[in-house]
Design brief:
The chain is mainly alpha-helical. About 75% of the residues lie in helices and about 0% in strands. The chain folds into 2 domains: about 55 residues, no CATH class; about 230 residues, MetI-like (MetI-like fold), CATH 1.10.3720.10. The chain starts with 16 loop residues before the first helix and ends with a helix.
């Protein structure tokens, strides 16, 4: 009987296999060249954005930091004064009032808009029939430029000819001084910004709600959890990273409030609605106090940067605990 070869096909490496093997040094060099080519290609894609960022943001920020230690430097000669501008920042009563007003505005505005947006997003997520109309209606105010939105509210809330006070007169009620008394004026500005930003946050939270795993909600429903309890125990913990990120974005944008203040109250009455950005604008263009304006603007940048870092640290710690 003839023996059968069951060893299979010959899979031994070719004779020139050793010639294709790189030494450790050659491998490191080839790997370095590959990474360099890949990085150059990636930087090439980033360059169309990065170059304007450096020109229009990076360089101006560095120049602003430098000018915060000088006086002048815009339309007149620059003069080095060291930390004199920064000492004036800490001692300026008007700036201190602006910081307090801005902090109060940020806390109230973010709290109100987040509560309303979460509630409306939950309703739209539950009742989806005809929801596109309400999404468009809620988002529409954000399409209006900030100046136009402030002017709309000016004609709504003016003491003499505003629509709200006109209706109050027709009803035989006393007029409400929404722009000339505190805290009405600041709360009116809160109303403007909540009205403008509500649609964005509703859609933002709605996207988050629709990403909550249905299995978790079904499991909670089987365990007997009703709607509010499911929302509080399942939905909100799932959305915590999203909520924290939203808080970071909201803080960054709301600390830069300016348009509504300039159009509606110009910081009044008695600086009751002055904000940090409005203070910087006034010092720069009304008083030509460039040193104090640049120092305050850099201080605002550092404040927002610190709050952002703290928020992202909290977000990172929470993710680490969840992992």
């Amino acid at each position: 009987m003839t023996a059968v070869d069951v060893s299979g096909p010959d899979v031994s490496p070719p004779a020139d296999w050793d010639e294709l093997t790189l030494s450790e040094r050659e491998y490191r060099l080839a790997s370095k060249r590959y990474r360099r080519r890949r990085s150059i290609r990636a930087y090439g894609f980033i360059a169309p954005y990065f170059i304007p960022w450096v020109v229009f943001l990076g360089i101006p920020v560095v120049w602003a930091i430098f000018l915060s230690f000088n006086t002048g430097g815009i339309v007149d000669d620059r003069r080095w004064v060291g930390f004199d501008n920064w000492s004036r920042v800490w001692s300026d009563d008007e700036l201190r009032t602006s910081i307090i007003n801005t902090t109060y505005y940020v806390i109230v505005a973010i709290s109100v808009v987040f509560i309303l947006a979460l509630g409306l997003a939950a309703l739209l997520n539950r009742y989806r029939k005809g929801s596109n109309f309400f999404k468009l209606a809620l988002y529409f105010p954000l399409l209006a430029p900030p100046i136009l939105a402030a002017m709309i509210w000016f004609f709504l809330s003016h003491f003499d000819f505003g629509i709200i006070n006109t209706i109050m007169r027709l009803l035989g009620q006393e007029r409400i001084n929404l722009l000339g008394e505190n805290p009405n004026a600041l709360l009116t500005i809160v109303g403007v910004e909540v009205w403008r930003g509500l649609g964005f946050w509703v859609l933002f939270f709605l996207a988050g709600l629709q990403s909550v795993p249905q299995e978790l909600l079904d499991a909670a429903r089987v365990d007997g959890a009703r709607g509010w309890r499911r929302f509080r125990r399942v939905t909100v913990p799932t959305l915590r990273p999203l909520l924290l990120f939203a808080l970071v974005i909201a803080i960054i944008f709301n600390f830069q409030l300016f348009d509504s203040v300039q159009v509606l109250t110009k910081g009044g009455p008695a600086l009751g609605t002055s904000t940090v950005v409005w203070f910087i604008f006034r010092r720069m263009f009304a008083f030509q106090d460039t040193g104090l304006a640049f120092a305050a603007s850099v201080g605002l940048l550092l404040l927002i940067l610190v709050l952002t870092i703290i928020s992202f640290r909290l977000l990172g710690q929470r993710r680490a605990k969840e992992a």
